[in-house]
Design goal:
Elements lengths: L1 E2 L9 H7 L9 H18 L6 E6 L2 H12 L6 E5 L2 H12 L4 E5 L8 H5 L9 E5 L1 E2 L4 E2 L2 H11 L2 E5 L11 H4 L3 E5 L10 E6 L1 H9 L9 H8 L10 H17 L1 H21 L13 E5 L7 H12 L1 E2 L1 E2 L8 E5 L6 H16 L3
Parallel strand pairs: 1-12, 3-4, 3-5, 5-8, 8-9
Antiparallel strand pairs: 2-10, 6-7, 9-10, 11-14, 13-14
Bound molecules: pyridoxal-5'-phosphate.
Length: 358
């Protein structure tokens, strides 16, 4: 079995070795050191300010999205939500559920986010924050960070970014783009087990956490901040994943994050070229290096049947697309422990499946 999915992804040997060890006790100096070190490495990798805070949550990415929404936004806000797929819809749903006034910026299927679309909201003085999944994983679209960043700067509103599927695949730079809050998660390009998510809060959001009292105990950021200062968490964290994280971050730092992004970009480019040569296509809007949606012409074969054959005959797992798109496309990820040869083999497998019909 080989995973070409967005998450979980193929893990490194070191990660699997750590994952197979006895979980140690954690309310001690030794574990605090691991947390504090990992926190510093995360800050360096996303270029966060020195006085920002990194909070470790034992939750999947959606838990971190919800925690971010309820700790930093309130009924006094008007939040612009970029809604171009299922993850954007999730942010909208979270605002709705927690009675946070929001305006959804609907991105029609297949279209890219442009300044024209945002300009409709430029004159709205009530907007206080923008929520976006910078790589909308359900469609593959990588939104224009400069565009969103300058919109937020002009409006003086908060810029809160879910970079769960973009971190390590595309450039993520908090200072450069004026990002106030960032969310990352363990099971995408970090290539760890699912269950650990991290939020990075700049001063602007730390100030808000001080004022907002969300109705939650498990996700109360004030509690996490007090604990984070001494390298701890209020409740039992995903201890083993934090050990995996420290090792992985050290290795990323040694390799250089730019080299990792470049390597992912090369794999994406190689795959997309191969897809074109097979007569298949992918969307024309800007794509994240993390994945490629592969579009099947109905005359060729349904995406679903190719998906099934890949699994059955080769043990290759790709990401099926949901809903209306299930027959038309699947998504192939380029993150995790994959080599160029793996991508070559996947292309050959797709080729032999679709050529059978000719
Ligand atoms: C994977 C992902 C999440 C997290 O989803 P979970 O299933 O809760 O882990 C959130 N946002 C984006 C953009 C993602 O790709």
């Amino acid at each position: 079995m080989k995973l070409f999915t967005v998450g979980p992804v193929e893990m490194n040997e070191e990660t699997k070795r750590i994952g197979g060890c006895q979980v140690p006790y954690f309310r001690n100096e030794e574990f605090s050191e691991v947390v504090l070190h990992s926190t510093q490495l995360i800050k360096n990798l996303v270029n966060a300010s020195n006085n920002s805070q990194v909070l470790m949550l034992t939750a999947s990415g959606t838990g971190a999205m919800e925690a971010m929404v309820i700790n930093t936004l309130s009924e006094a806000d008007t939040v612009l939500v970029v809604k171009g797929g299922t993850f954007g819809a999730r942010f909208s749903q979270l605002c709705e559920l927690h009675s946070i006034p929001h305006i959804d910026v609907e991105i029609p299927a297949g279209e890219k986010l442009t300044r024209d679309i945002l300009d409709k909201y430029s004159a709205n003085k009530e907007i206080t924050a923008l929520l976006v999944n910078i790589h909308e994983t359900s469609t593959g679209q990588l939104y224009d960070k400069s565009l969103l960043s300058s919109f937020c700067r002009e409006k003086g509103c908060l810029f809160i970014v879910d970079a769960i599927s973009s971190f390590l695949a595309d450039e993520v730079d908090m200072k450069k783009y004026g990002i106030d809050g960032l969310i990352v998660s363990s099971q995408k390009a970090l290539a760890l087990e699912p269950g650990l998510s991290m939020v990075v809060l700049e001063q602007s959001l730390l100030d808000r956490v001080n004022k907002i009292n969300p109705k939650t105990m498990y996700f109360d950021f004030s509690d996490y901040i007090t604990n984070a200062n001494r390298g701890q968490t209020p409740f039992t964290p995903a201890v083993q994943i934090i050990y995996e994280l420290e090792q992985r971050l050290e290795s990323i730092e040694a390799e250089g994050i730019d080299n990792i992004i470049l390597d992912t970009a090369r794999k994406a480019e190689f795959f997309r070229k191969g897809i074109k040569e097979l007569g298949l296509s992918y969307p024309t809007f800007p794509l994240s290096n993390a994945e490629t949606p592969v579009i099947f012409d109905s005359k060729v074969r349904s995406a679903k049947s190719v998906y099934n054959e890949l699994l059955l005959r080769y043990g290759y797992v790709v990401n099926p697309s949901g809903g209306d798109l299930a027959d038309k496309q699947f998504r192939v990820a380029h993150i995790g422990n994959l080599r160029m040869e793996d991508i070559q083999e996947l292309l050959l497998a797709i080729k032999s499946i679709i050529e059978e019909d000719k």
